[in-house]
Amino acid sequence: MNPKKNILVCPLDWGLGHATRCVPVINELLGLNFNVIIGADKNPLAFLKQEFPELPTVVIPGYDVTYNEQGSLFKLFCESVRFYNFIKKEHQFLATIIKENNIDIVVSDNRYGLWSKKITSILITHQLYIKTPFGNSIANKKIRGLIANFNECWIPDVKRIPNLSGDLAHLKPFQHSHRFIGPLSRFTSLRAERSNLIKEHEYDILAIISGPEPQRTIFEKLILEQIQNSNLKAVIVRGLPNLNVIARNESEMHRDEAILLSKNEITSSSQKALPRNDDNIKIFNHLSTKEFLQYFQKSKIVVCRAGYSSIMDLVTLGKKAILIPTPGQTEQEYLAQYHFEQGNFYTQKQHEFNIQKGLHKVEKFSPKVIVKGQIKLDFLLKKTNFV
Known about the structure:
By secondary structure, this protein is of the alpha/beta class. The protein is built from 14 helices and 13 strands. It folds into 2 domains: 6-185 and 373-386, 3-Layer(aba) Sandwich (Rossmann fold), CATH 3.40.50; 191-238 and 273-364, Rossmann fold. It has helices at residues 17-20, 22-31, 42-51, 73-101, 136-147, 167-170, 215-228, 241-250, 255-265, 289-298, 308-317, 330-341, 355-361, 379-382, and strands at residues 6-11, 35-40, 57-59, 105-109, 120-124, 152-155, 178-180, 203-208, 234-237, 281-284, 299-304, 321-323, 346-347. The strands form 2 sheets. The chain has a 7-stranded parallel sheet with strand order 3-2-1-4-5-6-7. Helix 8 (241-250) packs antiparallel against helix 9. The longest helix has 29 residues, at 73-101. The chain is globular and about 60 Å long.
């Protein structure tokens, strides 16, 4: 009998979305009797450790992307140069991890440097044709070259119309080996609980904060200001699982050590905001998947970024939502407009955000794509070059 294969699963660390959508992938791989090793850093690593405490992990340094307050084109250009340099470094770093952990397959979620000619390399992405402020054809040629390094590309979307990614994965036929594996949501396995959705919602809004700094904190402050100046009942999830880890550590270590850990782990002003629990507003640094699902069920409307992982979660749970794309993040701006035109979700630009107007307009929108069943990766057992 052949020994179980070791699969390294590695999400990109731009916010938590790439890590959360790896949850159903990891669950399916475990169900197929693979040995799964998680490779991540910072918040994604903290999140996946909480979801899968029994699995081994390796730290693969992340890419510290930032979006300034204006989301300027020059800033984005500088980030793109840094990004391609980082890809080269993580590719070199992977070789050591493969050797030390006897890796057979690597599944990389949007980390374009994590491939190797020595093992089967799989990329998860919906961005086959990216949106850029300038140089679109050049950027897409570069992306096609990066994807070509992998044995196969898994697209987290449906092949049919309507779909979730629009031009990003459906602009034209894609030539490299690929397959549509369906939307990925950590809530898919809990779908049966949707039958227990509460008819009368306890909260008006579930606000989900995510993304790179400083825009994450800017969005958080904007949400808080508008909710506090209203009579709305709201739940706010800050997307900072590392702060939960720090809070637990503070009760187990010397106070000075905990402060040092906090400074090392969280460098933005977001550490100043504290969770609260009162009659109108509940604020959490992070929630487990089951706890998160409960607040989805209890809340009438979701307010969140227009990240693709958030959209997959919303469609899976059939929730109405107001999408606020991160300024300067062209993929989110495209997705927000695309789903607005499809009638799936209402959207507002960040500088125009008005929660009262949004709550009025959002009633006319609802997701049209139906998510059927859980992800199936059993083809990994049938393809001889994958096992």
